Amino acid sequence: MGKTEKVSGMRKIIAERMSDSWHVSPRVVYTLSVDMTKPLAYIDKLNQGKEDKSKKVTVNHILMRACADAMKEYEYVNSSFADNTITIHDEINIGLAVAVEKGLIVPNIKDVGSKSIDEIAETVNDLVYRARNNKLNLDEIEGGTFTITNLGMMGIENFSPIINQPEVAILAVNKIIDTPVAEDGQIVIRPKMNLNFVADHRVIDGAYAARYIKTVKEILENL
User: 1, 94, 101, 178: most buried by Cβ count inside 10 Å?
Assistant: First the structure.
């Protein structure tokens, strides 16, 4: 007989919430590839002269801003569904999934749409540090309206995350891969990254979801 573990605490909460979401939300995954040439150059530019790691900008931070900017046009992505009611939120509060010991926690950045990239970076870096050291306040893990989860640094090229209820969408971020592409009749190598946008079809229809994630892609590729 193998080892058994009684499920409790954080793992029990995660199990209950993920199971509820799996059965409640009719989700569809929309995948596209982003050319990260300009975003990576933009990140390098923003990080020039920054020695303090707590202030450094990463892909997660520019994605948060791009997602928030796109939500200004596609407001249903920044909504929630509960009691047969859709609530479109005034503020864009984006959560970032953070792996912690024996679980996962999603601190969220309040009012992302009003923050600069540097402000987003400092806020996120602080939240991630405190999440991993069990020092978050309740307000910092409540009130999220959209979630981003990134497994790219672990080599994952495609995955389909479960929506964080009562939110109606989540974005999966994958590994950046040097990829041969055809440009003007020539083969060149570009850093490409898959984004998997998972949407609740009760609120977000296919064409709406496709236009939203295409807008995110355009924002990133034109930084």
Answer: 94
* Contact present, 66 and 173 (Cβ < 8 Å): no
Is 201 catalytic? The answer is: yes
Alpha-carbon distance of 38 to 9, in angstroms, equals: 43
Q: What is the pLDDT of residues 42-87, one digit of tens each?
A: 999 999 999 898 999 999 999 999 999 999 999 999 999 999 999 9
In sequence order, the 6+-apart residues with CB closer than 8 A to the CB of 120 are: 61, 64, 65, 109, 112
One of 20, 90, 111, 205 is an active-site residue; which one?
Answer: 205
Assess whether the previous peptide bond of 166 is cis (omega < 30° from 0): yes
The pTM of the whole model exceeds 0.85: yes
Q: What is the mean pLDDT of residues 88-105?
A: 93
